[in-house]
Specification:
Immunoglobulin-like, 8 strands, elongated, three-stranded antiparallel sheet, 200 residues, 24% helix, five-stranded antiparallel sheet, alpha+beta, 2 domains
């Protein structure tokens, strides 16, 4: 999803903190490299112990570690620009009494927008819909990034627009577009469900 631009919350900065803040950045980089970008989350008893030892609030530390666990949520977002053409596809996959339709792709100079629609029978999915919301991610393999730009749902129907960078080729022969389902955003806790469009 799009993020609002960050505005500096105050003009004040204690310059004596500069070296400490720089060291914090170096430690964050070291932490990312050591964990291979998969740090997980410390046990609460460790966080509470550190909070007591370093005179910090436990909830503050819990929030800090939540942000550190989801660093990829802050990847730079590419805004599509320079519309070139619309590539119609109209391909569908039927899975678990739902129809997944890939209607087409909008091609821009720097990105592509992939449109996916989901249609199902609300009466058959009422129990499933009463549970928590699940997340779809578009995965295209190495070299491509994607994020959900727009999404809407009503009953058992939903529509999503995924921004892909760099732009996909106009000829998708030999490519597969894989939509995978997760219990949490940022590809956390896969459900094992996947919808794959190939031979487009």
């Amino acid at each position: 999803m799009k993020r609002l631009p960050m505005k500096r919350p105050t003009d004040h900065y204690d310059a004596r903190l500069f070296k400490i803040d720089e060291q914090l950045c170096a430690l964050l980089e070291e932490r990312r490299e050591m964990s291979n970008q998969n740090p997980g989350y410390p046990p609460f008893n460790s966080i509470e112990s550190w909070a007591e030892r370093y005179r910090l609030y436990p909830d503050f530390l819990k929030t800090v570690f939540s942000v550190l666990m989801n660093e990829e949520a802050y990847l730079p977002v590419v805004e599509p620009s320079g519309f070139r053409k619309y590539v119609p596809i109209l391909s569908f996959v039927e899975l678990d009494n739902q129809i997944y339709t890939l209607s087409g792709i909008k091609q821009y100079d720097n990105a592509s927008i992939v449109n996916l629609s989901i249609h199902g029978d609300y009466r058959e999915r009422e129990e499933e819909l009463s549970r928590k919301h699940l997340h779809l991610e578009l995965e295209l393999g190495e070299g491509y990034d994607s994020y959900i730009d727009q999404g809407t749902s009503s009953g058992a129907n939903a529509a999503y627009a995924f921004v892909v960078t760099p732009a996909l080729p106009d000829d998708l022969s030999g490519m597969a577009l894989a939509f995978r389902e997760y219990e949490r955003p940022l590809r956390k806790q896969p459900t094992g469900k996947e919808i794959i469009f190939s031979d487009l």
